[in-house]
Amino acid sequence: MAQPRGPYRKSGARRAEILAAALAEYAQADAGGPTLKAIAQRLDLAESALLYHFGSREELFWEIVRARDEADRFRRDEEPLEPDDFHRIGEMIAHNASTPGLVKLFLEQAVAAVAASHPGHAYMRERYARFAAGLAAGLRKAKGLAPESADWLARVLIAAADGLQIQWLFNPEVDMRGDLGRLVDLALAATSPPPPAG
User: What's the pTM value of the predicted model, to 2 decimals?
Assistant: First the structure.
């Protein structure tokens, strides 16, 4: 049987082109995100060609989320935070505000990926674990927190970041960066060990 050619030829290069086009469309879209038609038109393809290269809408949307992670300039989230670097989460959330469609897509995919059958299940689970581990390591190093306290605070800050993004999608006037920054300051102040006596 002859192999498909042209727009229906499966290849890593074509998938990469589609994902780049999708990210470009999401960067220009509102919170609703672009349509598949808009992404396809950017590449002069039919919508069916997009799905052919990914197998399903779910797989395509998931790969867009993963491509966003790979292209994101805040990929240092896998590294332990340095003592003065806790507001990096605020920087990330402010950066996300420039692409509301991607914020919405990420949150939708994060919830969907809870199902073990979802194509992003393992990736998302590991992503949260890496980010939490890096943040907790920074909290232990900078503030001398016990491992249990650092792990708890890392989970709470990540949950707050996700929750603020949901609220911001409902009300763009929510100051995600400011709110998260205040929470970081309060949390660090509340969990810092007391100064040595004398």
Answer: 0.79
